[in-house]
Amino acid sequence: MDIPGFPARKSALRLLDAVLRRGETLDVAAHGALQALRGAADKALARALAAEALRWLTDLDALIDSATRQPLPEDAKARAVLQLMLAGWLRLDTPPHAVIATGLPLLSGGPRRLAHGVFSTLVKQGASLPAAPTLPPEVSARWGGRAAAIAAGLALPPPLDLTLRDPAGTAEWAERLGGVSLLPGHVRLPRGTAVENLDGYDEGAWWVQDLAASLPARLLGEGQGRRALDLCAAPGGKTLQLAARGWQVTALDMSAKRLERMGQNLKRTSLSAKTVVADALAWESEERFDAVLLDAPCTATGTCRRHPDVLHRIGPRQIAEMAELQAAMLERAARLLAPGGRLVYAVCSLEREEGEDQAARVALPPDPVGAEEIPGFAPTPEGWLRTDPAMLAEAGGIDGFFIARWRS
Question: Which residue among 36, 42, 60, 327 is least packed, with the fewest CB closer than 10 Å?
Fold first, then answer.
């Protein structure tokens, strides 16, 4: 069908189906759903439509249900199409006539008249979305008292964060790139920035890394030639941080492809690390390390600003599975520490089972995070760090992380 913008909507519908019906991540679903699109603009549009529909799904469904006599089934194709049509109109500012022209053909052979009627009714009513997304009830229940504040941090996709190879040049790079810095060694730029075209990319002066994701490696300090192990190291931001701070880094990950990508970034930044393709739970090493950084596999609910699919894919089963894996990895990580060594555990999760509950079971002596170590981030009474998307909202927000530290 030769309608400008239609192929992008068709791919967005496939993305939505992959996430909501098959439980795939947006990233995984994109490999198949976006293949038919030729241009980068169409791919970006398809992804933006699907992401905004997922971010505001509860509110979009409420609008749809308000304009139908009988609620559409949750898995009805007409509901999914309307979710995308409303996301295009209310979030991407697509004119209603263009939404109708590109959206209704998705229901070829289906209830086009129904979808057209629902959408037109909402347009005539001047429908709008709340200031912040409404979380799915089960997510709100899990996050309890934090839920409303976290939801407020999800209203917009996140900006672009860069970690600098040399923190001493923070002010210079913030000025050169036209960004702002929230911590030494960090620069924040508006979202949508083309990374490869930025000053300093070719010379390896920085790499892309959310501010929250940079905090765990900061808590290990200067390496001074000592040995560090980065377990589950890919995509490599923390390995680069440790190498830049003078650690002799061994970077371990199960994915050879992701380690290869890390190797490219090591080369670009003129940093070095030993890479090992292995399962952290099976890998054996006679060497013991002065620092072990375990950024463990997790549900990644803390990345809901940039990956709103986690709001709809993750439930008690996935959380329990991840918690079991994390406990085993923490035990293995502790055994790889040299006497006097430091262990930092981190997850980009907002779930207590993956954060506070894991840290409470570790038998090593705690090494509490001091308030002076990372200005602007107050440790918990236990000496842990907890960030969530409600923090730094005026500056563009931050991902949700849990971080704890111990000594052997």
Answer: 36
CB 218 within 8 A of CB 346: no
Q: Residue 183: phi, psi to the nearest 5?
A: -155, 155
Question: What is the secondary structure of 123-191 as a DSSP string?
Answer: HHTT----SSPPPPHHHHHHHGGGHHHHHHTTSS---EEEEES-GGGHHHHHHHHT-B-SSTTEEEE-T
CA atoms within 13 A on the CB side of 66: 15
User: Would residue 298 show up in a list of annotated catalytic residues for this protein?
Assistant: no
List 232, 298, 304, 348, catalytic entry: 348
* Residue 370 structure tokens: 């001091």
Cα distances (angstroms) measured from residue 13 to each of 87, 133, 262: 12, 21, 32
Task: State phi, psi for 293 to the nearest 5 degrees.
Answer: -110, 115
Distance, C-alpha 221 to centroid of its chain: 25
Angle 94-97-100 from CA coordinates, rounded to 5°: 90
pLDDT digits (tens, 9 = 90+) for 41-59: 999 999 999 999 999 999 9
Token pair in block for residue 125: 């009513």
Dihedral in degrees, nearest 10, Cα atoms 215, 220, 226, 227:
-70
Joined tokens for residue 137: 């009830």
Q: Look at residue 78 and tell me whether its pLDDT is greater than 90.
A: yes
| pLDDT tens figures, 202-235 | 999 999 999 999 999 999 999 999 999 999 999 9
DSSP 15-59: HHHHHHHH---HHHHHHHHTTT--SHHHHHHHHHHHHHHHHTHHH
The string of pLDDT tens digits covering residues 240-262 is: 999 999 999 999 999 999 999 99
Task: Indicate if the pLDDT at residue 110 is higher than 80.
Answer: no
Report the largest interatomic distance among the alpha carbons of the chain, rounded to a whole angstrom.
71
Q: What pLDDT was estimated at residue 1?
A: 61
